[in-house]
Records
---
Amino acid sequence: MWQKAIEDALQVTARNFDRFGDRFPHVSEDGKHYTLNDNTEWTAGFWSGILWLCAEYTGDPAFREQAVKTVRNFRSRMDRKIVFDHHDIGFLYSLSSKAQWILERDEEARALTLEAADMLMKRWREAPGLIQAWGREGDAENGGRIIIDCMLNIPLLFWAHEQTGRESYLRAAERHAHKSRRFLVRGDGSSYHTFFFDPQTGDSIRGGTHQGYRDGSTWTRGQAWGIYGFALAARYLHSADMLDTAKQMARYFDARLPADRVAYWDFDAPITPDTKRDSSASAIAACGLLEIADQLDESDPERDFFRGAAEASMISLVRHYSTHGDPEAEGLLKHGSYSVRGGASPDDYVIWGDYYYLEALMRLERGAAGYWYERG
Ligand code: GLY
C-alpha cells in the first residue's frame, strides 16, 4: 500500500515540474490549483523537500535536477534576504540545502545551511530567553512571543551545533525547547499555539492562539508541530523529558481523533457536518509518532502503539484523502486547512501537508526519516 501511494505521489510531482516551472507552490485557494510564488513564502522549502524525497527514492536524475534548482534559488533568497524576518528559516533551509548536504555531502549546501542557522540565531532574544517567531526585534506585539511551530525550526540550530561545535546554537535551541515545553504544553498534554512573555524581563504573560479556535483551545496543527518537534528535540538532546512531552502530546492527539483518524482543524471546535479537517496535521503527527517509535526500545510496549497509531492514520489518508495520482491533481493530499479561523484556504491543498504525507510514506516504506537530522 505504501509503495503504491509513493508511486502515485511521484507521478503527481513529476507532472508538477512543468506546471510550476521555477516557481514554488504554497496552498490552493480553489481546492484544485496551487498558488505559486518566487520563493517568498515560509513554505517554499516543502517543495524542495518533496523533490529531494522523490530523488532519493527513485535515484532519477530528473528529480535531482529539479531539487538542485530549488537549492540555487534558496542561495539567491539568502543573498537578497527575501522575506527573512521570521523563524521559518528552519523550515526553508532544512528541507532544501540541508537535504542536499545529507544526501550528497555538497559543501556549498552545508555552508548555505550554516548561513541559514546564523540568520535564525539573529532571532534569539537573550533577555526573555527565546527565539522570536515573528516581526522585528522590539515589535510591540511579537517581541516576546513564541509559537509552537518553532519546534520544527530549531532542529536547524541543533544540527548547526553538531556540525560546528559552537555552543551558542545548542544553548539557544535547548533553552527555547525548554521554554516551549514549560509554557506551551499544558498539564493534560494539550497545547497553546502561542505564548507571550515580557521581552525585557522574560516574565510570562499569557497563552493564546493565532490560527486556532480560541485562545485556550488546542489547534490541531500546533499539537502536531509539538509532537514532532519535541520528538526531534529528544533525539538531539538525548532527553527523556522531551520524549515524554512528545508522547503525552501524541496520546492527547490520538485520543481525540474522529472515527476516520484524520483530525478536525482544532480539537475544541464544535463538530458539525461543515467542520473542516486538517489532513496536514495528521500527516505531521504521523511523522512525529514514527519518530517517537524509532526512539523506543524494540521491547518497549509503547513502540507498537505509536507506530500503529501512525499507520492507522496514514491508511485513512491514503485511502480517503490522497489524490491517488489523479492526472489532473496538483496536490497529494486533499482537505488541508491553512487558517480556518482566518478564512484562508480552509479546505485545500497545502504544500506542507503534501511534504509530511510523503515523508511519512517514506518512513513507513523504507525507514527514511526526512532531513531533520543526519542519518545514523
Ligand atoms: N507554521 C505555520 C502554520 O502551520 O500555519
Note: The chain has a mean pLDDT of 97.
---
Amino acid sequence: MDYRSYIAEKLKIDGLTVEEKAEAVVVPPDLSMGDYALPCFRFAKVMRKSPVAIAEELKAAFLPDDVITSVEAVNGYLNFRVNKAGLAAETLGRIFSEREKYGSSDIGKGKTVCIDYSSINIAKPFHIGHLSTTVLGGALYRIFGFLGYNAVGINHLGDYGTQFGKLIYAYKAWGSREGVEKGGVKELTRLYVKYHEYAEEHPEADDEARRYFKLIEDGDRECNDLFTWFKELTLKEVGKIYDELGIKFDSYAGESFYNDKMQPVIDELEEKGLLKESDGAKIVDLEEYGMPPCLILRSDGASLYATRDLAAACYRKEHYDFYKCLYVVAYQQNLHFRQIFKVLELMGKPWAKDLVHVAYGMVSLLDENGNQVAMSTRHGTVVLLEDVLKKCHEKAYEIIESKNPDLEDKKEVARTVGTGAVVFAALSNSKIKDIAFSYDKILNFDGETGPYVQYTAARIKSVLRKAGKRKAYTVAEINDDEYALISLLADFPDTVKAAAEKTEPFYITRYAINLASAFNKFYFDCKIIGSEESVKNFRLAISEATLTVIENALRLLGISAPERM
Ligand code: ARG
C-alpha cells in the first residue's frame, strides 16, 4: 500500500494531480501528531486562503475509512492516522516477499542514466580528495540500478595532456623499468615532482616534454608503450581500492578516447557560427550569459579539457541515448560544467538540459588534535586513500579486540567495519557540505556512523540466531516503539526514490541511522525472547524485517554487514 497516493486520491484539491498531492504528503518527525501529514502552507498562495482555513476545509471533505482511520486539522496541517495493524501487516508482508528487492522499483525502466564518477588522473596518487566522487557515484550507480534504470558507470580517465610528455621525459632521464615496477604510482609521482624541480632551472625541458606528448598523439610506438604501461599500472593500483569499496564501471573511456571525436564537434561549432577567434585561440563567447569564454582550441591548435568534455557528451548521447547524464565532480568545477552545458545548448542540443553536475564539497582529515591534515600535491603531502583505509582497519581491529576479543575472523570483520566507516562517513552529509573527519568519530560504535548501523545489524542477527526458526506471526496490538519502527520500514521505498531524484545518497545514510536507532529503542524497551508466544513472533518478524531493510540500505551504499562484531 502506498499511503501517500492513497491519501492523495482522497484529497480534494483543485488543479493538482494525484502525484503532486502525494508529493506534498510528509511523514512527520514526531509520530504523536499523526502518521502522515499535509502541510497546507504551500497551497495558501494558489488557493488564496490561510493554511488554517485550507486545512479545515480539506478535513471536512475527507472521509476516514479502514485504511486512514482519522484526520485532524491542526495549525495549518492536516494530520492523518493510518490503520496501524493494516500498515504493519502490509509492510512486513511486502518485505518478506520482496526481501533483497524491497525498496526497488521499475520506474526507471527503459531509461539510461550515465554516471561519470571517480574519473581519476593517470599516474597521480589516489588521495582522500577522490573519496567523495568515488563513493557518491558508486552509490548513485546502485541506487539508479535498484530503481530499474539502466545505469552506466563511466570513469572519464584523465589520460591526456602535456603532463604525460613530462612523465616520459622524467622516466627516460631518471627512471627505470624496475623502479617503476616496484614503486608504482608513487615512483611515477616522484619522477613527476623531480621533473618540475628540474624544469625550473632548465625550461628547455618543456619543449622536449611537449615533443614527447606529440609523439604519443602521433602514435609513436615507444612513447605509446610507455604511456599504456603507466596507465595500466595506475588502473591496477586503483583497482584494489575500487574492489575494497565495491566500485564498478562499465566504461573507462577517458579523455584520450575522444582524440578523434573532437573535430566533428569543432566543425559543428564553426558551422553554427559559435566559434570566435581570440588572440589566435578559438573560443565560444559566453559573456551574454555572465561567464568567461569557453576555450575550445589553444593558439597552438591543441584541444582542452572542455573540448574533450563536449565531445564526450555528444558521444554519450549518441552511444547510450541517456535520459540523464550525471557528472559527479567537485564544486570547484562548477564553472566548467556551466560552460559546457551552455555551449551544448547553444549548439541546439535539446538534451543539454539532461546533463547534471552533481557537485560535492571537500573532504579533509583531522589529526588526533582536531587539526586539518594539510595536503598539497606539489609538495607530495597527500593523504592517500589507501592509507586512510588501512588505518581504519587497524583502528577497527583495536576496538573489536577490546569489545569482543573472542570473535572469530577479527581481521575480516575489522576490514568490513573500517571500510564501511569510511564510506558511510563520506555519504553522511548533504553532498555539497565540506567534511572533515577524524578516525575516532567515524569509527564510534555509538555515533551516527557506519559501524553503529553494522553493529545494529549484527545485534539483530544475534537475536534471530538465539530465537531459532521463527513461527508465523499475526498482527494485533502495536505499541509505539513497534509502530515507529514499522512506519520507518514502510518509508524505505520512498527514501530510495528521493535519494535518486535529489542525487543525495545521504538520504539513505540518514535513513539507516534512524532505522538503527528506532530498532535499538525497540530492542531496549520491548522484550523479544521470553515474551508471550504471539508477541514474540511478531517482534521477531519486525526484527527480521528491520535486518532486511538495513542490509538493503547498506548494500546501496556499498557497505556490508558482518554476521558478528
Ligand atoms: N579527472 C578530472 C579531475 O580530476 C575529473 C573529470 C570529471 N569528469 C568530466 N567529464 N570532466 O579533475
Note: The domain at 3-82 is CATH 3.30.1360.70 (Gyrase A; domain 2).
